[in-house]
Amino acid sequence: MRRSRRNTLVGGVVALGLVLSGTAYAYWTDSLNVTTKATTGDFGVKFVDLGLYGQYGDETNKGAGWSIVDGIGDNSYVGDQFFLRGASDYNIIAKPGSIDAYKERAKGSNNVDFNAELKDKEKLTKDIGRAYKKAVTDASGKVVLTVDNMYPGYAQAFRSDIVNVGDIAAKLSNIKFESKNLDGGKESGNLDEMIGVAVFLHREQYEPNKTGNEPTFKLAKALADNGVDSSKFFKVGGVDFVRLSALNDADVKAALQNNVIKCAPASDQRLDMFVGVAMDPDAEGKFTTGTVEDRKDNDDKLSQGKGIQLSMDLLWDQFNAGKDAGNGNILVNQNADSSSKPGTGSSTGSSTGSSKGSSTGSSKGSSTGSSTGGSSVGSSTGSSTGSSTGSSTGSSKGSSAGSSAGSSAGSSVGSSFGGFFGGRRRR
Description:
- Keywords: Signal.
- Residues 284-304, 327-427 are annotated as: Disordered.
- Residues 1-26 form the signal peptide.
- This is Signal peptide protein, YSIRK family.
- InterPro entries: Signal_pept_SipW-depend-type (IPR023833).
- The chain is mainly beta.
- The protein has a domain at 45-290 and 298-322 and 410-421.
- It is 9% helix and 29% strand.
- The chain has helices at residues 5-23, 98-106, 191-194, 219-225, and strands spanning 45-52, 66-69, 77-79, 113-118, 122-123, 138-139, 142-148, 155-164, 170-181, 195-204, 214-218, 233-236, 239-243, 260-261, 270-279, 308-318, 340-341, 345-346, 358-361, 367-370, 412-421.
- Strands 1, 2, 3, 8, 10, 11, 12, 13 and 15 form a nine-stranded antiparallel beta sheet that branches.
- The longest helix is centred in the first third of the chain and has 19 residues, at 5-23.
- It is elongated.
């Protein structure tokens, strides 16, 4: 039987097509890859080493200064090393037995009670410098200081360290104060005038090229320099105390200096905070009846059996908040709002957030698409209307994220201490 030549030809065409089809995918290829990895650090500041003042020799006058002014005995004060426990135990506020010893001293003269507490404390999760070890050192973002049964002329001091527990240096940017009634809606009388505080912070400096400590914040001086009237201060034991009434609207931001503490474990740098609480002696009888020799017609009930609390928030930014290099580098050429890109010339269209670039087609149906997010060439199928849709490899939104203005949003944390003071604490 004669074989059909047509069938033979068709079969050959099919075979050739398969061969050509196979060779179309036989080119050699290669690829390059860039992988970018990033992690974020922690940002945090904590109180540690809370105690009654003083706890270390370099922060005292070797006993010649005071920890408590109470009017008892010939000296009328307790020496500044009376409660000193040093580095023996950072988690207790005083040398064992010293608080009981003070109460024995005060027996028959006053019934003052006091405490300093790290609220909601947890153990450190990392070593801080050479002193504070993880898993054994208590830390917290809030300190509560309590003094009960105060009286005019009484003053007491406390101290704490402030450490950086994160991976980013922290900057103390502001301090906010708020005083309010201790017992909610009950009256605090005139305690906002009778009770005062003193606050001093300095930065401990252990860097090899520096010595000594650097003053960071002085409350009384900050307010005086900002125009606060002298009537808002009173003095006990040689220290200026600021009446609580002067603190609610206090602006101290400009007074902060040496306020950056570096991150552990690279540095031992930290802040020491010293806080004093006092009740105005008011011998002249401005708020009380004063003295028998010069008795004033004031109501002592306004300052007796009352309670008040002060909250002080220390507000922290990451160290680079507000900073920006500004000038840019070669990468500005890829910015979403750039008007010119290397190798593509100028753009003829503008992007308004559409993923389709705008273009102007010719009557022949060909056009060049433009994009402000990247280079693109529009292709056309020869539409008789002359319009086409350009393809774009630029930003699908056409807007620039730009450069951050110094991470002004940044990371921030707050640390605070609260105090409860008065003639009698209401529970």
